[in-house]
Amino acid sequence: MAGCVATPIPDSSQTARQYIGLDEYQDRSELRDLTGVDPVRTEWCAAFVNAILELDGIPGSASVSDHPLMARSFLDWGVAIERENVKRGDVIVFPRGNRGWQGHVGFYVGESPKGNWIILGGNQDNEVSYGIFNPNKALGIRRYPINTTSPTRTLWGFNPVDLERQGENKWEDH
After folding, report:
1. Cα–Cα distances in Å, from 70 out to 18, 82, 104, 105?
2. pTM of the predicted model as reported, rounded to 2 decimal places
3. Assuming Cys at both sites, which of 78, 90, 124, 154 could form a disulfide with 142, CB separation 3.0 to 4.6 Å?
4. Strand, coil or helix: 174
């Protein structure tokens, strides 16, 4: 496709880094302004991920879920990525608690020397921090679809040639 320019997807883990160390008690007001929720009264890991994605101009889980404050809402967001293809900035969902709806979500940063995943997220020990997680417990690895077209037209995870062959119109203008 002549004249098409791929717009790079921001590494949201880089955006999130500027908030490392913000504590839900000491920095309650700043976190509330960022996430839109009271971090002392609300489990805020999903709100943090959504806020960082918004700063990067990426739609968050509210674009696919009626419950964007639930970590597991990200299981329907973006495109699924296989474990061996995980990369920095991917959104990772883990289980938490004893109820099937509970979870934790953050950004993949890298791998520890022991093979665990380093996740940057909110509400990790009541603050924005790095945490170590077992990759075998990940419920899902998600990535924002790559923009394969011009900066003003986004194709959400579909190959334009395949769509033309199928006669489908999956384009969304911004």
Report:
1. 23, 22, 8, 9
2. 0.80
3. 78
4. coil
